[in-house]
Amino acid sequence: MIDPQLKNIIENALNEDIGNEDITTSAIITKNTTGLGEFLVKQDGIVAGLDVLEILYNIFDPELNFKKNKNDGVKVTKGQVIANVEGNIASILTAERTALNFLQRMSGIATLANEFTERIKHTKAKILDTRKTAPGLRFIDKLAVKIAGCENHRIGLYDMFLIKDNHIIAAGSITKAVNACKKFRKANKENFRIEVETTNLEQVMEALKCKVDLIMLDNFNLADMKKAVELIDGKCKTEASGGIDLNTVKQIAETGIDFISVGALTHSVKALDISLEIFVQK
Fold first, then answer.
1. Which residues are identified as catalytic?
2. Which residues constitute the domain of residue 259?
3. What is the number of structural domains in the chain?
4. What distances in angstroms separate CA 37 from CA 10, 92, 97, one per listed residue?
């Protein structure tokens, strides 16, 4: 069964691009023209989104025959044909850009996520994504992160408490903010985790006394991060956050941190270069 959220994203993307009609294809291609489209990888990376394409073609034109040559999450190299789509050429051309937009973006996210994972594989740390996703595409962006072997942070504002600096200012203290979340949680009979963002060791100690599930160390230098991890000593999970890139992630992971959140996975990712080559049947 297709996830309703994924189905909605795909349908919206198709409608956004096609509108009432693909006038160029309608003008040039006869309705009975058939052929083959090959998805050609033009740079090395991790492929993600092939399962999404299979659903996309089934929604747009069920008579198209889509075949994967690779599975999501595997390494691909320049020159490989990772999938084929066969059937009505007009349908293949009309859905081309939408299909490539999903495949290129998701593969770009997966490729970058894999690079981060490779840098820290000798540690216990896990890479997390954030909510810094393309509006309307969070499901897709976070799916690509999972395909690459990383983990999703909270999906939205509704599935986990995350007490940030402005929440602390508004509440008056970390303790007051945490207590309010615990009261809310009890009243609503939910068991959402509570995470607190901290910016110094004093805040870490206060959050620790509140017995939260996760403490975020935001923009800590390496020395203070090591101290914070030692202070917490496994009493709750720890997360490093704030401007982390491929050059800094290894040292951060080696502090003993549990999780490292990287907004760049989804907010500024470069699409993987993949093209669709068309072959018309005579």
1. 97, 132, 164, 197, 218
2. 114-267
3. 2
4. 20, 7, 13
Residues 146 and 93 in one domain: no
Look-up of token digits 């990888």: 41
Pairing of strands 194-198, 161-163: parallel
Q: Does residue 238 share a domain with residue 119?
A: yes
Res 281: pLDDT: 85
Residues 6+ apart with CB under 8 A from 121: none
The string of pLDDT tens digits covering residues 172-187 is 999 999 999 999 999 9
Q: Are residues 98 and 127 in the same domain?
A: no
CATH assignment of the domain containing 43? 3.90.1170.20
Whether the pTM exceeds 0.90: the reply is yes
CATH at 161: 3.20.20.70
Residues 6+ apart with CB under 8 A from 164: 197
